[in-house]
Amino acid sequence: MIAVVVVTPAALPVARRITAALPEARLHGLAGRVEGAEEVFSDAKAHIAALFKAGTPVIGVCAAGILIRAVGPVLVDKQAEPPVLAVAPDGSSVVPLLGGHHGANELSRRLAAALESHAAITTAGDLKLGVALDEPPPGWHVANPEAAKPVAAAFLAGEPVRLEVEAGEAGWLKHLPFAEEAEPAVRITDHQVTADEAELLLNPPVLALGVGCERDCPPEDLARLVRDTLESEALAPGAIACVASIDLKMDEGAVHALAASLGVPARFFTAAELNQQAPRLKNPSDIVLKETGCPGVSEGAALAAAGPDSELVVPKVKNKRATVAIARAPQGIDPAQVGRARGKLFVVGIGPGTAAMRTPEASAAIAASSDLVGYGLYLDLLGEATAGKARHQSNLGAEADRARMALDLAGQGKVVSLVCSGDAGIYALATLVFELIERESKVEWLRTDVQVIPGVSALQAAAARAGAPVNHDFCTISLSDLLTPWETIEKRLKAAAEADFVVCFYNPVSQRRRDQLARARDILLTGRPAETPVILARQLGRPEESVRVVSLGELTPDHADMLTLVMVGSSESRRLRLGGATRVYTPRGYAKKLT
C-alpha cells in the first residue's frame, strides 16, 4: 500500500490522478478539508510519521518541508526506510526525498510519466550511471547490498569495474563502461558465493523451483526440503523466479507458504502441460502418473516454468512427504508468462457508499483486483477506484449470476472482487458464494482462494447517524419473503417482540411488497409502546442521505423503500434533543452503576 497524503483541497485533483495511476495507492486526507479520502487524519505531521514508521511509502502532494519535518525525527535506518516523495500540488514536479534506492526513484519516474511532469532525481548513481546498482529490475535480487556503494563509487570516480555473468543476461547494465580486468566487480550469479569486499552479487531470476507434495503436507516439511536442497547445491534463493507445481496443488497451503517465504509467485500447470515435459524428465514415475496424470510433478513443473531451452540442474529430491526439482533458464523467467496463478476472489463489503465509510481492507482488495463484479450502482459508488479494471455488472436480482461470474473469473486465475454494499456477510453475497461452491463443486472454484472482506453495514451506519440505538441487544430481520417464507419471518418477529430486542429491518418495502412492514409494526407493538422511536435511514453515505425519527405507532409503508433501513427501538430506547437534532439511544445499564 502507498499512502497519498493531501492536506489542502487544491491538491486533490493531482492526488486523484496519482491514485488512478497507482492501483496500490490510497488517498489520505486532512479531516474537514479533503473530501472522499479513504483515510482521514487530523494531524498531518503525526500521521505521516506513523505511516513512515510502519514502513508505508508516502507520496505527499504538498510542500516538501511538511514531509521533512514529519519524518526527520523518526529517521533511524537508511537501509530500511520506505520511499518518501514530495509532489508539487500542481503536479509539475516529483521529488524523491528518501529511499531513492528502495523504490523511490523508480516510483518517481512512474509518477512523472503519469503526470507528464519531471522527476527530480538527486542520487549520484542514478544521475551519472543511469541506473541504481542496488535497485535491479523486477525479479532480480541483490545478495549483498552493502557492496553497491563502493562499486558505484568506483564507476563515479572513473575507475575500472569488472562484470562477470555466470547466469542469465545483463542487458540492463550494457551501457556501463565495464573493464575486463579490475578489482571492483559486478557478479551475476545464481549460486551462493562468498563475495570480495568490492564485489556486488546480483541474482538474476533464472531458476524455476518445481515442487510436489502429499495433500496437507506440513509447510515446514516442504520448506526444509527446499532449504536443504539449495544449500547442498549452493544455489541462491534470490535467483528463484517462481515456485511451480501441478494444478492439483493450486490450493495446497504448503506450496503457497513456500512461495510467500521466498517472495516469489506460485504458478501451476495442468497434467497435459506437464506431460509435454515427459521426454526431458530424469526420474519419471508410473506411480506419480497414476496419481496425477503425468509422470513427474516437480521435474515437469520446473522445466515447464523455465521454458523449452532450460536445463534440469537439480533432478528430483524427496523426503517422506514432498519432492523438489530445479531448472535453469538461459536468459531469465518472467512468471507472468508461464503457467497459471491461483485465482483469488474477494467478496467485498464496501459500506453504505461513501469512500470515508469504506474500510482500508476493502479498498486494498479492490485495488488488488483485475476484475470487479457487482450491481451497477455499487460499482459506480466506487468512483475512481474502478479505473483500469474490468467491470462486470448486472441488474438487481441477478445475484446468483454475479456470484457465478466472479467465481468463473477467479477460476481462470484472475484476482476478482465481488462487490456488495454494506457488509458482505449481512444480507449480501458471501453466503451465496459458499453455497454455490458446495452445490456445484466445480474444480476450478474449489481451488480458488476465497476471502470475505467485511464492511460497515447499513445498521452500523444508521445507528451512528442516529446516536446509539443498538448499544444493547438487537437483531436484524429481512422482511423480504423472496427467499424466506413469511411464516418464518413472522415467528422471528414475534420472538423479537417478546425478547424486546431493538430490531433492524432490511428490505422493508418494495413495489410488490407493501404490507409486510405494517404487519411487522403491529407485531412489535404487542411488546413495546407506540411512542417507541423508529429510525428511518435512507441512502446512507450518499448525496441523497436522509435520517428521520418517527414513532412506532405512526410507522407506515410510505415511510420506507428498498433503500431504507428501518430501526425500531426497544421499550428502553430513548429520544434526546441534542444540538438541534433528535438522537436515539438505548441504555445498557451503566446509569445504575453510576448512582
Q: Main attributes?
A:
595 residues; alpha/beta; Nucleotidyltransferase, domain 5; 5 domains; 7-stranded mixed sheet; globular; 4pyrrole_Mease_sub2; precorrin-3B C17-methyltransferase activity; S-adenosyl-L-methionine; CobE/GbiG_C; EC 2.1.1.131
What can you tell me about this protein's structure?
This protein is α/β, with parallel strands linked by helices. The protein has a seven-stranded mixed beta sheet with strand order 3-2-1-4-5-6-7, sandwiched between helices. The protein has a five-stranded mixed beta sheet with strand order 14-13-12-16-15. A five-stranded parallel beta sheet has the order 19-18-20-17-21, with helices on both faces. Strand 5 (84-87) and strand 6 form a beta hairpin. The longest helix is centred in the middle third of the chain and has 15 residues, at 219-233. The protein is globular and about 95 Å long. The two termini are 49 Å apart. Pathway: Cofactor biosynthesis; adenosylcobalamin biosynthesis.
Figure out the total of helices. Answer: 20
**What level of helicity do the residues show?**
25-40%
Amino-to-carboxy terminus distance:
49 Å
- Give the number of DSSP strands: 29
Q: Give the mean pLDDT.
A: 91
Indicate the radius of gyration in whole angstroms.
30 Å
As laid out across the biggest beta sheet, the strand order is: 3-2-1-4-5-6-7
CATH class of the largest domain: Alpha Beta
Instruction: Give the overall silhouette.
Output: globular
Q: How many structural domains can be distinguished in the coordinates?
A: 5
The CATH topology of the largest domain is what?
Methyltransferase, Cobalt-precorrin-4 Transmethylase, Domain 2
CATH architecture of the largest domain: 2-Layer Sandwich
Structural class: alpha/beta
Report the uncertain regions. Answer: none
Profile the largest sheet.
Answer: 7 strands, mixed
- The CATH homologous superfamily of the largest domain is termed Tetrapyrrole methylase, C-terminal domain
Residues in β-strands, percent: 15-25%
